Every structure is written in C-alpha cells, then in structure tokens.
Amino acid sequence: MKTSRLCVQPSTPPSLLAGQVVAEAEDLVGQLTAEGHLPADAAKRRTREIRAELDATGTYRQSSEELCLGARIAWRNNPQCIGKFYWKGLETRDCRDVGAGGGDESALFEALVDHLRLAWNGGRVRMLLSVFAPSRPDRPGPRVWNGQLIRYAGYRQHDGSVVGDPETVDLTEAVLRLGWRGRGTEYDVLPLVIQWPGREPRWFDLPPDAVPEVRISHPDYPWFERLGLRWHAFPTISNQVLELGGLRYPLAPFSAWYTCTEIGARNLSDTNRYDKLPQIAKGMGLDTGRDRTLWRDRALLELTSAVLHSYDQAGVSVIDHHFATKQFVRHEEREHKNGRGCPADWSAIVPATSGSTTPIWQRRYEPTRTLPNFSPQPVPWPTGGTEG
Ligand code: ARG
Predict the structure, then answer these.
(1) How far apart are CA 241 and CA 373, in angstroms?
(2) 304 in contact with ligand 1, CB cutoff 6 A
(3) Mean pLDDT score across all residues of the chain
(4) 94-103 pLDDT tens trace
(5) Which atom from ligand 1 is nearest to the alpha carbon of 257?
(6) Residue 163 and which of 64, 172, 221, 360 are 20 to 30 A apart at CA?
(7) Is 256 in the pocket of ligand 1 (CB under 6 A)?
(8) Which residues sit opposite 130 in a β-bridge?
(9) Buried b vs exposed e over 320-340: b needs ≥16 C-beta within 10 Å?
(10) pTM metric for this prediction
(11) Residue 158 in contact with residue 250, Cβ under 8 Å?
C-alpha cells in the first residue's frame, strides 16, 4: 500500500496555492483508495468532481467519510503520539456548519461543551475529534485561543513566581486583558476564548459538569491527599490544525485518555510546571538537600503511582506507560505488515520516566511528516510566538 508522498513543514500557512490543494486532495483520494475505502472508478470520479468544485469556487467540501477516514490517517501520521494503536477507533464529529456564516461564537461554545461531555462519557473517555469550519481562500476558519479545552490558569506574580500552571501564563494574561477574572487559585479552569477571524474574541466559562477532574491521593500515604493536587480527567488538544486533503481545519479539538506519566512525571512535577516534587519528598521524609539521595526520582515515582491509583479509583480511563509503549510497538508491527512506515518522534513518545524499561527505548524512529496530519499553529492572540 502506498503512503502519502507529500511532506510538509509544521505550520503550513493557512492559504495554500491552488496547485497544492489539488495535489493534496488527489493524494488523499489516492490513499483512501489504496486503503480499500474507495473503488478505483469512484476515485477517478471523485477526483474530477473535486477539481471542478475547486475551479468553480476555489475550495471544496469533503464528504463525511473523507473527513472521518482522513482524520484517522492524520492521527496515524502524527509523529508525536504514542497512542496511535487505536487510530481506527477515532470518532469524528462533523461540526463544519456550526456557527456557519462566521458570526456565532456561542454556537461554537455549545458545540465545544458537547464535545467535552461526549468525550468524558462518564469516565470511559472516548477518542473524539470535532471538526469545525475549514479555512477558505477568502476567510480563515475559527480558532480557540486555548491550547487545550480544559486547562488551568497561570497567574504571574510580581516576584516572577506563578500561581497555577506556568504553561498558560501568556494565555492567562491575554484572557485577563479581555476582561475575564479568575479566582486566583492554583487550579482555576480557564474560559474558552473563541474567535472568528476579523471579529473580536469572546470568552465563555465552562460549566462545571463539562470539566471533570480527579483529586490525587496515594494508595499508601494518607497525607498525600492533603497536598491538594488534582488534574483534569482527560486532555483535549485544541490548538492544532488538521491538514487534510488540501483543506485546513484550524479548530479540530482532539480528546483521548491520559497516560499517567503525562500528569505525574510532567504536568505536576516539571520544575517549570507545578513543581510538586519537593513537597512530596518532604512528606516522604526524604533528604532533599542532596541530589544523590535521589529524592526527586523517588517522589516522581510515588506521584505517578498516585495518579494511576486516583484515576482508577475515580473510574476514569488512564493508561500506564508500560502498556502504552507495548501497544505502540504492536501498532508499529501492524503498520509494517500493511506496508507502511511508522513515523514517530522518539523523544516525544518515550515516557518521561523509566524510558529504558519500555520496549521503545531500543528502537529508532523517523519523525517523517506526511499528510494528512495535525500540526501546531501560531497563537492567535496579539503577541506572536507559539505555545508549547
Ligand atoms: N501532554 C498533554 C497534557 O498533559 C496532553 C497531550 C496528549 N495526550 C494524550 N494522552 N492524548 O495535557
């Protein structure tokens, strides 16, 4: 089977040249055909149709099937993700007509809240993608400013320290400038900021039932709960553009379940994030005066196991990094069997702890970028730069 020949640099500009749109569209039809979703004669017909629509209107509308199957391939092509074993299970909601005409931010907000409720699914988190209006030559599609639909504010203090999540200080400042006021706690959920190009952004606070969270406790340390740690139940990446068949969908939020290390060994522990290891080590009675006591390593392990324990107790889907990496290797083998490569960025898929105990440690990957794909895009608020 053939894979896409088209390579891209991340953050392709929103308006493509007509020739590139045709090439990408034909490439997508070709891939869907090669993977058995379209008979050859239907593919020819579809290609002619797309060309005619492009000639007449400068853009084209993808069928729901092209959108849904194409999004799965985009995920499969993404080199940053360790969860691709499940690529065939990605569900896509077609929200292309929501707020059609470009004026109605509240309709978009409602659809995003629905997305969160559907993805949450009572704790059995679903892999869910919602695709909103694509960019057109005369008008880019809508964006949300948030890197994820659910994220905590980060308030920069006068002394340079941050209350909340340091990852979001720029976004938080931009949202404060719009007139939003948070409570100033460590875990204030940011409002969604929705913007149609050419219009003022509008912010909306999420209703509490759309923001499930998990309080972190430890299976053996009763004091752990008193640290007051928590995290949102699942991630929903909302700042990547879906690049599919010559179209660009700048608002395509993607939910899936967490791997425990993302929370325990990154979000709550990185020194430039919540930086909780010193408190945990103190609780464990470790000597934090010297690195050589390995207090960070021991605290990190207990935090990660607390995350697993807490999500399990709360009945929220979460996987551990051993299982995740084993599934990735199975995915890789399956891809090879189907005549495809498995693009991956090793540094992105190796878990943040215990990397060498997992089967991907010894393996090497090519981070090739092929289309379709999900890519980063510049932050939409006035300042420039990109958010990590
Ligand atoms: N690492 C990001 C976070 O901690 C989420 C990235 C996507 N992860 C996922 N399991 N789908 O929020």
Answers:
(1) 8
(2) no
(3) 94
(4) 999 999 877 7
(5) 10
(6) 221
(7) yes
(8) 93
(9) bbeebbebbeebbeebeeeeb
(10) 0.94
(11) no
Q: Which of 262, 274, 353 to mutate to test the pocket of ligand 1 (most atoms within 8 A of CB)?
A: 262
**Helical spans, DSSP H, in the chain:** 18-34, 40-57, 64-77, 105-120, 169-177, 260-262, 277-283, 295-313, 321-337, 346-349
Cβ contacts of 321 within 8 Å, gap of 6 or more = 259, 260, 261, 351, 353, 354, 358
| Cα torsion angle, 55, 58, 63, 67, sign | positive
Could you say which DSSP state residue 17 is in?
A: P
384 or 118, which is more confident: 118
Ligand 1 close to Cβ of residue 259 (< 6 A)? yes
d(CA 148, CA 251): 11
Q: Contact 72/43 with Cβ under 8 angstroms?
A: no
Give the dihedral sign, CA 380/95/88/63: negative
- Return the structure tokens found at 288: 């934090």
Atom of ligand 1 nearest to the CA of 258: 10
pLDDT tens for 146-199 read 999 999 999 999 999 999 999 999 999 999 999 999 999 999 999 999 999 889
Separation of alpha carbons 209 and 300, rounded Å: 30
DSSP state string for 331-369: HHHHHHHTT------HHHHS-SS-GGGSTTTT-------
**Chain length of the chain:** 388
How many other CB atoms are there within 10 angstroms of residue 87's CB atom?
19
Distance 291 CA to ligand 1 centre (A): 29
pLDDT of res. 15? 63
**Cβ(264) to ligand 1 under 6 A?**
no
